[in-house]
Design a protein that fits this description.
Radius of gyration: 19 Å
Keywords: Signal
Distance between the termini: 27 Å
Shape: globular
Signal peptide: 1-24
CATH topology of the largest domain: Jelly Rolls
Largest sheet: 6 strands, antiparallel
Structural class: mainly beta
Strand content: over 45%
Helix content: under 10%
Strand order of the largest sheet: 1-14-15-16-13-10
Protein name: F5/8 type C domain-containing protein
Organism: Hephaestia caeni
Number of helices: 2
């Protein structure tokens, strides 16, 4: 099992697409504001300029609408151009879901060896005859991955934004809202350097800027449910267990 991953995205200086509409929507935090492709059966490219060369080891294309099982993507880029080298070879766009699931909304995630790049190109192919792709979020950067994985006791929760009122007759008055997930975990045995890096990340994101948390980024069954895009909602003060190690409890609420 891989270790938990936390990504505060690198700022994107410019973004363009070879086709489709509203590409700038990928840079807004709300995943309901989408880029919509205008065709299927051939590759659409999304070009990302970070403004300066930076190390990245994670790329996230979130909230892809109607991705076919055979939809694919590649990632290329470099310090000088969008085609310097292949960062991620062609592979499935949709991350693995639980057995038997066929989601209408999914994610694409790459996490691998860090590369120094300024320019990133995503090439997305939806098979012919399928609806054109849409996506709501794009993020790239170098993730925080601690030396030791989260402690036992991490877990998901369900958040319902609707309301429910008990009625005198024994039933309920309900107002439908959205159902979404949350996740809480504890990082133990953090080194001083890791505490400083996580502290900087938390100060940058706070509880209002989006962040990506992946329980385990391995491309294995159920990855879709292990991906959490949203905002931090819990920062328990870190505490020392010994002079060289720290423990910190965190939580995230998903944005849907």
């Amino acid at each position: 099992m891989a270790r938990i991953l936390i990504l505060a995205p690198t700022a994107i200086a410019a973004i363009t697409a070879s086709r489709g509409s509203a590409i700038a929507n990928l840079l807004t935090p709300d995943p309901k504001e989408v880029w919509a492709d205008s065709a299927s059966g051939s590759a659409a490219t999304i070009d990302i300029d970070l403004g300066t060369s930076r190390a990245i080891d994670t790329v996230f294309l979130g909230y892809a609408r109607a991705p076919a099982a055979a939809a694919s993507w590649t990632i290329s880029g470099g310090a000088a151009s969008y085609t310097d080298s292949v960062i991620k070879p062609a592979g499935a766009l949709r991350v693995p879901d639980r057995v038997g699931a066929a989601p209408t909304v999914s994610h694409a995630l790459w996490h691998g060896t860090a590369a120094n790049v300024r320019y990133i190109r995503l090439a997305l192919t939806q098979p012919a005859g399928q609806p054109a792709l849409m996506a709501g979020v794009v993020m790239a950067g170098q993730a925080f991955v601690p030396s030791f994985d989260k402690e036992w006791g991490a877990g998901r929760r369900i958040i319902d934004t609707g309301t429910k009122t008990s009625l005198p007759g024994g039933g309920f008055g309900t107002v439908e809202g959205a159902r979404k997930g949350g996740y809480s975990w504890t990082l133990g045995d953090l080194t001083t350097a890791e505490v400083d890096a996580l502290y900087d990340l938390a100060l940058d994101r706070g509880e209002t800027r989006p962040v990506l948390v992946v329980e385990d980024p391995a491309a294995s069954t159920g990855l879709r449910n292990r991906i959490h895009y949203g905002t931090f909602d819990r920062f328990r003060s870190f505490e020392r267990r010994d002079p060289k190690r720290s423990r910190w409890e965190l939580g995230i609420e998903q944005w849907v």
